[in-house]
Amino acid sequence: MSDLATAEKASQPPPSWQSRARWTKAAKLAGWRAAVAFPITAFVSMVVFWLASIAPFNPLAAYLGAKFERVSIEQRAALAEELGINDAWIAIWGRWVRDVVLHWDWGYSRSMSRPVAEVLSERLPWTLMLAGVGIALGVGISLVLGVSAARRPGSTIDRFATGLAHLVQGIPPFVIALGAVAVFSLALGWLPVAGVSRGGADPTWGSIAIHIVLPATVLGLSQVPWLLLNIRTSVITALTEDHVTAARARGLPDRTTVWRHALPAALLPFVTVIGARLPELVTGAVLVETVFAWPGLAAATVDAAVSGDFPLLAAVTVLTCLMVLIGSLLADALYVLVDPRVDDA
């Protein structure tokens, strides 16, 4: 093979993510990870019920609320027997799993005065919306700043991007949230402070779009340090690879070389970091929702923890576990789709 042909082959970007082999392997991986997710979630729920059984927590008092002190000891004993509170924790867990799987009955939330299933169906979409927009903003900011910094190491944009990453890395998300409220809501009056609508009015898509700007931006910024520094390092490394060097030797524009040849190879570790950051994203979402009074699961979780609302706490814990597992599954599947080492034959 001539030197020219070798250079032509080396200068080609990694294989397209649209190939059938990639999608087949990604689908197999997703199916395997989905199958593994069920026993993991079951184990997590078992641990939750076991911890509740050894914790200084009176489920009957949580069930009765303010009526607990007015109920006689005999009535308490009869009610505990009726509810099965005195049974072994594994039996209680088994009944809970049966009700969830067969009837979608997650129990009754005393703190919210409604079935847990209704609380989840009402609040979970808000949490998913905030987390989705937040991670999208975080990924977008990290890609733009990280790639720009990697193109010119040591430049002004590089120092700004890395300095911003290290600064944000040392600030808790709730501090960033309070600072954003103080500046953009209270001082400048550009954006609303909290909620999803003004004056208690019914939310519209327009009001939601305005109210989500601050919380989603804060949540995205909380993930930028790790994502930005990772993509910067990965792009710098990718710029030294053979196919990128050959592309530059052919006289391709620097922007084309970076975005079409170096970036696809740099996305592999970047996708891995996104998957690893999912638990932190969930934690950050809880804090951000609390500061901005976002009507997601955070406020319900806090109320449930304070009042000992175990059915709601168990449901939120299991759903959080599922969201992390599903997010990790998607990250691994995306890794396969962008991995140039997958055989396209």
From TrEMBL:
CDD domains: TM_PBP2. Gene3D superfamilies: MetI-like. The keyword Metal-binding does not apply. Coiled coil: none annotated. This is Peptide/nickel transport system permease protein. Residues 124-331 form the ABC transmembrane type-1 domain. Belongs to the binding-protein-dependent transport system permease family. It is found in: Cell membrane.
